[in-house]
Every structure is written in structure tokens, then in C-alpha cells.
Amino acid sequence: MRFIEEVVVDEFLPTYRSLLAEALRERGLTQSAVAELLGISQSAVSKYVHGEVERNERLLDHRGLAELVERIAEGLASGEMSSVQALVETEVFVRELEQGGVLARLHEEAVPELADYDGEFAVHDPDSQLRAAERTLSAVRRGLRVLENTSGFATLIPAVGSNLVQTLPDGDGIDDVAAVPGRILDVKGRATIPAEPEFGVSEHVASVVLAARAAGSPAVAGLNVRYDESVVESLVGAGHTAVEFDAEVAVEPAIADALADDPEADVVYQTGGMGVEPVVYLLGPDAVTVAEWARDVL
């Protein structure tokens, strides 16, 4: 099983970034300046401009991509375009390629079974349930990579383990929530992820996110970490809003009561109970953002 976001990461990004890095270097920017504009390391820029990254020939032949690269390189180099504007233009272009363009074709070639699918929607329809599930799983995968690359995250994993979850936009049950089967564990000081994310494999963290949503929270993603007063203080110091809930009350009414005064609070925690380990839950707009918030504690 391969999702179109993986085609974007594996095929589009290396090709696009290498072309853009070359174009910026040709306009006199240093590797350091290019790295800062693209949000990547100087070593990555070096690999791109020296041809050490494999490019997709189909994308190299795409006239629209060549035009986009030239327009963005000129805008960034001249200062007439901000990095945010460049990102927006690129995102729009990627969405077009996903919906019937070359990325859609590459995806269909990677998963030929799509051609035989007789459902009532097209897999590359951005409003389809399959696309929503694809985006959700991809977000959790990206969030897990953030956690794997966050030094010290293992120290935040509670004894029961952590999980990173994200629900479908209209999700209202456990089966609508993507998460790690078996939870994320601290194995000899390293955060260990036992398997790829799936739907319906988290009960506790998923229940907290769903309860928060039922109480009016806009959150669709969640991550649990160990409780400590300093953890909560660090999160509050970083600008988060924290509220406490009762661990000895059922999750849904406990979360509803905690969020009654501020449904948009993005940290909920409990300090333990009879046989219940104290835990902090981060609630956010997507799995990547929630994973990045863990760095506010370290």
C-alpha cells in the first residue's frame, strides 16, 4: 500500500528542491542562504546542487514545474516573494498534480489496483473518504518521524507508553482514529515505534481526543507524555493552555468538565488515581504539530 503523499515525498520533493536549489545558486545565493530559504540543511543543499539526489525524469520533463521553479527562484532571489508565498504556490501546484496530473499517474502506476477500483469516488478526489484517510495516516507517519528525530523524547514516554493519534476530519469513533499499534515505547533510551500507524488501534489516547472534540475542542490529533509539574509548566511557558481533569471519572465527562470554561485548551492532564498513572495529553490541529510541541518540554 502506497499513498500519494509518499509519492510527493519520494518523487516530487527531491526533484523540486534540487531544481530550486540549483536555480537559486545560479542567481548568486550561497548554500547557507539557499538552506535558510528552503528550510533544509547546507549539506542537503550541497547534495542537491551536486546531483547526488535522484530525480524523477517525468517531473524533470514537466514544463509547468520548470516554470514554477524559475518563477519562485527569481522571486526569492530578488526578495519580491516571501518563503510563505513560495510555499503556497508550490502547495497549489502539488495539489494540481495530485488531481489528475503527473503525481496522480505516478501513484496509479505504483498502485495499479486503483485502476480496478469501482467505488463511487475517485481516489484522487480531495474530498473522498479514501483521500481523507490517506492524509490522516500520512500526517501520523510524519509526526512519528518528528518524534524519532527529537532528542530526548524517550524521557517523556510514560510507563504505559505513548501514542500519537489523529482522527478523520469527521471522525466520531475509535475506528476513525489513526495511531500506532502497541504504542511508542522507551527501549534503552530510544523511542521505539513497533509498527506503521493504522486506524482503530488506539483506545485510550483516541478516547481523549474524541472526548475533547465532543466537548467543543477543535483538535484532531493527540499525544500523551509523562506527567510532571515541570512538564506542564514548560508547556504553559511555551504558550499552551493547560487544564486538569479527574483520572477517576470516565474519560468523556472528565474531559468535558475540564474543557467547560475553555474548549480550546491544548493541554489536558491528570495527576493519577487508584492504579492510574498520571499523564499529560497534547491536543492539536494535526499529528505533526502535536509531535513538534513535545520539543517545548525538552
UniProtKB/TrEMBL annotation:
Entries under SUPFAM superfamilies matching the protein: AraD/HMP-PK domain-like, lambda repressor-like DNA-binding domains
Domain HTH cro/C1-type: 20-54
Protein name: Helix-turn-helix domain-containing protein
PANTHER family in alphabetical order: HTH CRO_C1-TYPE DOMAIN-CONTAINING PROTEIN, TRANSCRIPTIONAL REGULATOR PROTEIN-LIKE PROTEIN
UniProt xrefs under CDD domains: HTH_XRE
Transmembrane region(s): none
Domain of life, source organism: Archaea
InterPro entries per UniProt: Aldolase_II/adducin_N_sf, Cro/C1-type_HTH, Lambda_DNA-bd_dom_sf, ThiN
One GO molecular-function entry: DNA binding
Pfam families per record: HTH_3, ThiN
